[in-house]
Amino acid sequence: MSLALVQSRALLGLQAPAVTVEVHLANGLPSFTLVGLADVEVKEARERVRSALQNAGLDFPNNKRITVNLAPADLPKDSGRFDLPIALGILAASGQIDASRLAGHEFAGELSLSGELRPVRGALATSLALHTQGSTACLVLPPGSAEEAALVPGARVVRARHLLDVVQAFLPPGTEPPAPSEGWTALQAQPPRTPTGGPDLADVKGQTAARRALEIAAAGGHGLLMVGPPGSGKSMLAQRFAGLLPAMQVDEALESAAVASLAGSFRPEDWGRRPTRQPHHTASAVALVGGGSPPRPGEISLAHQGVLFLDELPEFPRAALEALREPLETGHITIARAAQRAEFPARFQLIAAMNPCPCGFLGSSQRACRCTPDQVARYQGKLSGPLLDRIDLHVEVPALPAEQLVGAPAGEASATVRERVERARARALARQGHPNQALQGQGMDELVMLQDDALQFLQRAANRLGWSARSTHRTLRVARTIADLAGATHTGADHVAEAVQLRRGLHHTQH
């Protein structure tokens, strides 16, 4: 048969659109043509496939006119993932393997010149897309990629080490069946394991207010801004925040790992662990929210179901920070380009840290601040009001004197705090089905269950502090979380008072 069809998948966001690799062999001037909106990496497959087939001892039809079409033609394709399906298509079209037996299988893999299979990025995203679409196809993938794909419950995955291992599995009828080999192995789905280790909150001494703010942020899914002088422990606190969050559900772990797989940064030992991303303050808007052509996930998507820690917040480019505003509200980011659009999940918790002024010592009892009021105003003015409005908690992290640090007892351990966080989260989920951070609309008044004296207190505080409607609503959500941590059914004035205090960190440093 001179025409063969092999199934594969492209990558576009977390979707994995189906791609049919069509291979046609014809008489005529010998050539090898690749069509179907293929990127440079895909076009280079011609040389890899030719060498892999010849070095594996298989026949390459040098005397034929070879046309390979990657359909649909208007879908951009990138990476070396189509090497294996192209090679199989040539072998099927030239009669070296049985084309009919390829049905029900999907292939992806980069070929080395010797025929060894190399891993490709996005294997877990591909497997998850198949699972979501209800497809029963069997994925044939290289080592490294196959183990990723097998993490999806119910996935049918085969690991192949070499092109010859795949060829042996699809030999024409009448040939001797291949002997069992290590090179062709069906993998079983792996249940998620509970991650262990990681930095512990017990390492942090003192900083009672900041620790309390971390606990509230973890319980309600709130964003947190820490303001304090250099060396006061802001980064140390932020790096321990992920350890306070409840354990990931399987679907959360799969989504988080699928985004990491798309970026090529997934590691099996991180399976089930909430990610903490800490981009440098020189990161561009595209690095933070994603972009490029084809679109790739940015830091906010790689922090999906985990933590995005932005240290030195005012030093980030203004455009990068303003790009965070929409994902903070919606939990996803849509990257639109002229040729295509891709949507990535971005449900992260923002933990930010900053100095109160350029020198860092405004309001410090340790050292005198040498910044002018204009410099302080300009520095804090780098953060727009709309962005600050979207960060629920603002807390001061003062520098501690040496006598409080040396010889002080260890703080409360992360595991103890996480138990309280899980109980508070469970209350919120039982009441409204999502964390308090997502409370909005008409149902908020009924769900917050504000007592009369608490309502009057909140109105007075909002008027005095000149809050926007968004700030007031966010304070209500924080107060509801504080009530959940206390095990209270209704939100009282003491809960609101604490929530009001937790929105004044940045403003307090200005006076």
UniProtKB/TrEMBL annotation:
Transmembrane segments: none annotated. SUPFAM superfamilies: P-loop containing nucleoside triphosphate hydrolases, Ribosomal protein S5 domain 2-like. One of its GO terms (molecular function) is ATP binding. GO terms for biological process: proteolysis. Keywords: ATP-binding, Hydrolase, Nucleotide-binding, Protease. The keyword Hydrolase applies. It comes from the Bacteria. InterPro entries: AAA+_ATPase, CHLI-like, MCM_dom, Mg_chelat-rel, Mg_chelat-rel_C, Mg_chelatse_chII-like_cat_dom, P-loop_NTPase, Ribosomal_Su5_D2-typ_SF. The keyword Nucleotidyltransferase does not apply. It holds the Pfam family ChlI. Residues 174-200 are annotated as: Disordered. Residues 298-356 form the MCM C-terminal AAA(+) ATPase domain. SMART domains: AAA. Belongs to the Mg-chelatase subunits D/I family. ComM subfamily. This is ATP-dependent protease.
